[in-house]
Amino acid sequence: MSSEQQQTMPPQVQDKQPGHETEMNPRPDYEPRYPGSGRLNGKVALITGGDSGIGRAAAVLFAREGADIAILYLNEGKDAQETKRLIEREGRTCLTIAGDVGDPNVCRSAVDQVVQRFGKLDVLVNNAAEQHPKKDIAEITPDQIDRTFRTNIFGYFYMVQAAMPHLKKGSAIINTTSVTAYRGSSELLDYSATKGAIVAFTRSLAQKLASEGIRVNGVAPGPIWTPLIPSTFPVEKVKQFGANTPMKRPGQPNEVAPSYLFLACEDSSYITGTVLHPNGGDPTEA
Fold this sequence. Notes:
Belongs to the short-chain dehydrogenases/reductases (SDR) family. By secondary structure, this protein is α/β, with parallel strands linked by helices. The protein is 36% helix and 11% strand. It has one domain: Rossmann fold.
């Protein structure tokens, strides 16, 4: 099959991470696919990386299901304000918080702001991430390793530590891992390592909190069309993004968001320590 035949997306790049949804062509599809049924009525959710991509789609779906939302994002203010508008369009309240999840003080402050605004916290979604492809392991600098681990796994620890005093029986924690945790990625060694760590963290934390009635699960997306893609990969890779899946295309954020909803609501009341795999049919999972 030729390169042209495999093209799944228009060629494009962005010059820095985390990337901006407003600059993507086409824009990721975040719209929920069905009317809400009140599955999160009265709940409050905090979603890191909630300004765009999977985080935005989950935030809007949670809002449609009755939750008030706080989103924590790095510096994508325009995307965050659009997500706020979309949540308010669903008739819910949105609190936007800018900050780096790799800083424990930011995580504590974010949780404090949520509790001050809404009076509680029911659902924590750890979703913020970064990745930096390198063809040679020698090119991965100590600074890159530190940065990737600080965002992708340290930040999950810090958010959970900050949230725990406010979580109670019936609360849920959902961690975003990746298909790369299961099948690896030759050019994303540090990123894949953090995503594997998230799987182990999720399973271990689930065991730790089961007796308190707090469920901990994960979602391992495959290739999903988010701002991280054009801000990470060169044009040729973006053009063929998702073509190597059995479905021969990338997924959209609104195809992943229902996994988060299922794990956040009482539909999954007897599920903890597991990972869902919306990945276009990739058979590599465990």
